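Summary of Year 1 activities. Much of the first year was spent building the evaluation harness for sequence design. The harness presents a backbone, in tokenized form, and records the residue chosen at every position. We chose the following record to illustrate the format because it has been used consistently in internal testing since the harness was completed.
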């Protein structure tokens, strides 16, 4: 096997998506000079030891991680040394904040330097100030993503480098997570001798792999319908305006079927995938589903329509939670381009039709379309997060990621941010 080193001679990118039902690993190669990414290897294993971002059995999780990494290494013929991880869970919190600095100030005198252009150092300074918010001692910042800059009275500036003015303001989107969740996840991966290059909130990675620039500019919401959680990311004017996690996902549908029919989770999952429809009006009331309950040796049956009615009721509940989260974005017409739905739950039959009918907006299924070599092997909605992780080191504008390249590790950047915040307060 070839050994990966993080140098320009070996432009390799690796993503590790750790979900509650499935763990996926993808290995890609950055094709210079255009920066396109080619998929070299991908693997999936059943998850274990983690639920909704919380590790429940560390040994079981490490065993699953070792298996998925080995499978990906064999397919790509490359040895993995470092990865970018996904993270989700109820402990994730996001907020919008802002900060400003005075420009052209020398020895306390404004305009000490006439017409000095804004430099990278000015941007770093104002972004560092914007992320220096008072957080509980048990939380760390995952992402500091610029939304826009303001130079004096000029608004909606995406890149102020080279402009002049008296005052530079930055508005940013912060994503934070529980320190314990971060440390436990990172240490589990490092147990295998692998360096963690970064942690990415799942919907932000999925958005990078699926959303188009026009969608993010005019307004779109990415909904990642996972197993134990549903993640939201609202984009407008080419920036993240709101992100959140709803602690309910497609596994709740499986549980509803299992309880209703008194059958095992595995059998309920099979019925969901084979027969269930998110839109009960498009299912048959003449097709009988045969099953055998746990407490009864006699074979029973239920119509496809009856099962779908229970499924539809649960999905409608989730859609109402999505609407509430989208409304918190506090922007006009946040759904101009509607909703892009990713994750395994997006593959439920007729869920797109139900979403358009219930939410009253355009909805499309999100497939990863920005990486070469995904056709027929990794082009489904449940691959969007891991494909986005491959893109993250090259294409994200996360201030945390940019600083991390200078500091060398995820722990260094988190410690630096924490030290800055402590000095401020």
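For this record, the design step produced the sequence shown next.
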């Amino acid at each position: 096997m070839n050994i990966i080193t993080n140098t320009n001679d070996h432009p390799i990118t690796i993503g590790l998506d750790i979900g509650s039902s499935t763990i996926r690993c993808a290995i890609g190669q950055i094709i210079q000079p255009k920066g396109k990414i080619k998929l070299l290897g991908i693997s999936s294993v059943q998850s274990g030891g983690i639920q909704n971002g919380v590790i429940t059995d560390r040994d079981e999780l490490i065993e699953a991680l070792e298996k998925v990494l080995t499978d990906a290494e064999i397919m790509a013929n490359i040895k993995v040394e470092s990865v970018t991880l996904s993270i989700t869970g109820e402990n994730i919190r996001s907020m919008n904040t802002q900060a400003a600095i005075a420009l052209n100030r020398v020895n306390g005198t404004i305009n000490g330097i006439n017409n000095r252009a804004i430099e990278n150092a000015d941007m770093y300074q104002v972004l560092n100030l914007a992320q220096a918010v008072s957080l509980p001692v048990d939380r760390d910042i995952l992402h500091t993503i610029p939304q826009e800059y303001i130079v004096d009275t000029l608004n909606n500036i995406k890149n102020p480098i080279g402009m002049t003015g008296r005052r530079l303001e930055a508005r940013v989107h912060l994503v934070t997570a529980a320190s314990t969740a971060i440390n436990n996840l990172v240490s589990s991966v490092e147990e295998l001798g692998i360096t963690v290059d970064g942690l990415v909130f799942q919907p932000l990675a999925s958005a990078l792999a699926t959303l188009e620039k026009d969608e993010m500019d005019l307004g779109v919401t990415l909904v990642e319908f996972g197993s134990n959680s549903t993640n939201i990311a609202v984009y407008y004017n080419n920036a993240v305006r709101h992100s959140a996690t709803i602690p309910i996902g497609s596994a709740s549908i499986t549980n509803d079927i299992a309880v209703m029919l008194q059958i095992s989770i595995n059998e309920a999952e099979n019925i969901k995938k084979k027969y269930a429809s998110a839109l009960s009006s498009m299912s048959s009331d003449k097709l009988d589903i045969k099953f055998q309950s746990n407490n009864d040796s006699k074979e029973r049956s239920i119509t496809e329509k009856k099962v779908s009615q229970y499924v539809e009721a649960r999905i409608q509940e989730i859609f109402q939670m999505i609407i509430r989260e989208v409304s918190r974005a506090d922007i006009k017409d946040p759904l101009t381009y509607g909703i892009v739905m990713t994750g395994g739950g997006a593959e439920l039959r007729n869920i797109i039709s139900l979403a358009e009918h219930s939410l009253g907006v355009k909805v499309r299924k999100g497939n990863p379309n920005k990486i070469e070599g995904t056709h027929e092997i990794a082009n489904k909605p449940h691959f969007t997060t891991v494909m986005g992780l491959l893109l993250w080191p090259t294409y994200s504008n996360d201030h945390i990621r940019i600083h991390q390249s200078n500091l060398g590790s995820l722990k260094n950047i988190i410690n630096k941010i924490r030290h800055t915040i402590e000095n401020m307060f």
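The longest strand covers residues 139-151. Quantitative recovery figures across the full test set are reported in Table 2.
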